[in-house]
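ok new one. same drill as before - structure tokens go in, u give me an amino acid for every spot. 125 of them this time. try not to just spam alanines like last time pls lmao
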């Protein structure tokens, strides 16, 4: 399967999954003011400001994790157009830039790959 088709399949899978299948409970806002969702063994806090996308990771107990060794892809939609943003370590977060401003509460998903190759997704509705 070519790269474009793989990305399209991933996007449809992540965006089409029912919200209830992704989370059993709601999380309060994160320490950086973002939305927090479960992502496998981690929690992911999504913060968007204009074109900048940041994801802060914590373990299951809420302790911050270093971003080094992690990578992620965010597929977010704030208006009619979805954006695919590659996220890489930048200080204590995974960060990337969209081509256009996303607003404060874009919908979509973030697929995270950990240092050992473990992958997980967080869905943000």
């Amino acid at each position: 399967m070519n790269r474009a088709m793989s990305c399209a399949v991933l996007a449809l899978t992540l965006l089409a999954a029912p919200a209830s299948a992704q989370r059993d409970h709601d999380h309060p806002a994160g320490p950086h003011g973002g939305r927090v969702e479960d992502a496998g063994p981690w929690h992911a806090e999504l913060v968007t400001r204009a074109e900048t996308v940041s994801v802060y990771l914590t373990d299951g107990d809420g302790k911050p994790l270093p971003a080094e060794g992690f990578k992620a892809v965010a597929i977010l939609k704030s208006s009619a157009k979805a954006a695919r943003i590659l996220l890489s370590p930048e200080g204590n977060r995974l960060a990337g830039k969209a081509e256009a401003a996303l607003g404060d509460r874009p919908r979509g998903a973030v697929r995270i790959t950990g240092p050992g190759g473990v992958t997980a997704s967080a869905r943000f509705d």
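Residues 16-24 have pLDDT under 50 and may be disordered. and btw The two ends are 28 Å apart (CA to CA).
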